[in-house]
């Protein structure tokens, strides 16, 4: 794909526990900010982290989110050598849940009425990934200018 790029917007690089690191997500051509990704390493178990993402509605459904989350998974498992990633989404956010399914994360838990959000009790779905399916993808990266996470490794 190579249509989106991510830029690290924090110093130092991610990996320090209990800090959320935000990654700007923009179109490769024009550099328009279209969303962000986030990663927080667990302080009790620094081999684990939670990921998050947002994408402007007008850019959803075009593969940007899929490419970006795949890139973040590759970075987390391939560069940071994390062992386990989790993600949590509102159960009504079908697009986010589908994206997490498509990148190979597995549904691990469903919590009913466990969050009060926008004036109502909501439900959340938890996902996990241990990187077992990432090995060949990470090893197969070219490091070329078209590699969506090339800049993260430098």
How would you sum up this structure, described in words?
There is one protein chain. This protein is of the alpha+beta class and 154 residues long. 19% of the residues lie in helices and 38% in strands. Strand 6 and strand 7 form a beta hairpin. It is globular. The C terminus is likely disordered.
What would the principal axes of the Cα set say about the shape? globular
Number of domains: 1
SSE order, as H and E? EEEEHEHEEH
Overall pLDDT: 80
Sequence stretches where pLDDT stays below 50 over 5 or more residues: 135-145, 148-154
Number of helices: 3
Strand content: 35-45%
The span between the termini is: 21 Å
CATH topology: Aminopeptidase
The CATH architecture term is 3-Layer(aba) Sandwich
Structural class: alpha+beta
Largest sheet properties: 7 strands, mixed
User: What name goes with the CATH superfamily?
Assistant: Gcn5-related N-acetyltransferase (GNAT)
Rg from alpha-carbon coordinates: 15 Å
CATH class membership: Alpha Beta
Key words describing this protein structure:
154 residues; alpha+beta; Aminopeptidase; 7-stranded mixed sheet; 3 helices; 7 strands; 19% helix; globular; disordered C terminus
Brief rundown of the structure:
With 154 residues, this protein is α+β, with helices and mostly antiparallel strands.
């Amino acid at each position: 794909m190579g249509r989106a790029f991510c830029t690290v917007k924090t110093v130092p690089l991610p990996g320090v526990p209990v800090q959320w690191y935000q990654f700007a997500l923009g179109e490769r051509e024009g550099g328009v900010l279209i969303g962000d990704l986030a990663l927080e390493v667990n302080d009790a178990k620094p081999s684990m982290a939670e990921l998050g993402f947002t994408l402007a509605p007008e850019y959803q459904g075009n593969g940007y989110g899929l490419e970006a989350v795949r890139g973040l998974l590759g970075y987390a498992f391939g560069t940071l050598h994390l062992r386990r990633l989790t993600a949590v989404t509102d159960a009504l956010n079908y697009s986010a849940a589908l994206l997490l399914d498509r990148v190979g994360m597995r549904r691990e838990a469903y919590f009913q009425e466990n969050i009060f959000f926008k004036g109502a009790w909501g439900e959340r779905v938890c996902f996990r990934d241990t990187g077992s399916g990432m090995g060949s993808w990470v090893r197969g990266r070219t490091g070329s200018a078209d590699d969506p996470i090339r800049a993260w490794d430098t």
